[in-house]
């Protein structure tokens, strides 16, 4: 049987936010990994730089990161077991959150031109 796309029925904003958090989670300089649980704590969140933000070597539109500052997005993520202890300073993605297939990760991997 083929795996269902978006089995947790995340909306577009939630999917986009999780996809960007997963991109951050791939950068060892921006995270703290719990090897026992597989959870990844994002130590810093992106800050706007004009009309875009830098996530590692990638550049992403500011409008794409709006979910990071939306508490409702993180309430849903926590309720669905994808994140925990989300606050204004750090976010912890659970192992399930790191592995969840958003189908969007490739959209946010454009190398920055500066």
Q: Beta-strand level of the residues, as a percent range?
A: 15-25%
Total domain count: 1
Largest sheet report: 4 strands, antiparallel
> How many separate helices?
3
Structural features, described:
By secondary structure, the protein is of the alpha+beta class. The protein has one domain (12-102). The protein is 25% helix and 17% strand. The protein contains 3 helices and 6 strands; from the N terminus they run αββββαββα. A 4-stranded antiparallel β-sheet has the order 1-2-6-5. A two-stranded antiparallel sheet has the order 3-4. Strand 1 (31-33) and strand 2 form a beta hairpin. The longest helix has 14 residues, at 12-25. The radius of gyration is 13 Å and the shape is globular. The model has no long low-confidence stretch (mean pLDDT 86).
Short description:
This protein is an alpha+beta fold and 114 residues long. It has three helices and six strands; from the N terminus they run H-E-E-E-E-H-E-E-H.
Question: What key phrases describe this protein's structure?
Answer:
single chain, 114 residues, alpha+beta, 4-stranded antiparallel β-sheet, two-stranded antiparallel ribbon, 3 helices, 6 strands, 17% strand, globular
């Amino acid at each position: 049987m083929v795996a269902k796309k978006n089995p947790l029925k995340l909306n577009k904003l939630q999917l986009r936010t999780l996809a960007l958090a997963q991109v951050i989670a791939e950068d060892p300089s921006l995270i703290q990994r719990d090897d026992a649980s597989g959870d990844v704590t994002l130590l810093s969140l992106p800050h706007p730089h004009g009309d875009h933000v830098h996530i590692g070597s990638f550049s992403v539109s500011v409008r794409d990161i709006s979910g990071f500052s939306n508490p409702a997005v993180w309430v849903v993520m926590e309720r669905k077991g994808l994140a925990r202890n989300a606050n204004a300073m750090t976010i912890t993605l659970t192992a399930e959150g790191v592995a969840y297939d958003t189908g969007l990760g490739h959209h946010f991997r454009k190398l920055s031109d500066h």
